[in-house]
Amino acid sequence: MRYKKFDNLKSIRELVDFLPNATFVKDAESKFLLMNRACEAQFGMSFTELRGTDGSQFFPSEPIARYLAKDREVFRGRCQLDFEETFWNASLKQNRLGHIFKKPIYDDTGKPLYLICTTIDITERKQAEDELLAREERFQTLFDRASEGILIISPTGKLVAVNNAFAQMHGYTPEEMKDMDIGALDTPESRRLIPERVRRILAGESLTFNVENYRKDGSFFPMEVSSSMIIVNGEPLIQAFARDISDRKFAADEIHTLAFYDSLTHLPNRRLLQDRLQQALASSARNGHKGALLFIDLDNFKSLNDTHGHDSGDLLLQQVAQRLESCVREGDTVARFGGDEFVLVLEDLSKDFLEAAAQTEAIGQKIRTELNKPYQLTERKHHNSPSIGATLFNAHEQPLEELLKQADIAMYQAKQDGRNTLRFFDPLMQDKIDVRAALEGDLHLALEKQQFRLFYQIQVEGIEVDGSHRPLGAEALLRWVHPERGLVSPDQFIPLAEETGLILPIGQWVLETACDQLYAWQQDELTRDLVLAVNVSAKQFRQVDFVAQVNKALHRHIINPRLLKLELTESLLLDNMEHIVETMRILKDTGILFSLDDFGTGYSSLQYLKKLPFDQLKIDQSFVRGLMSDSSDKAIVRTIIAMAQNLNLNVIAEGVETEEQRQLLKNKGCAHYQGYLFGKPVPIEQFEALLKNN
Ligand code: C2E
Ligand code: MG
Ligand code: MG
Question: Which stretches of 233-374 are assigned E, i.e. beta strand?
Answer without folding.
Answer: 235-244, 291-298, 333-338, 341-346
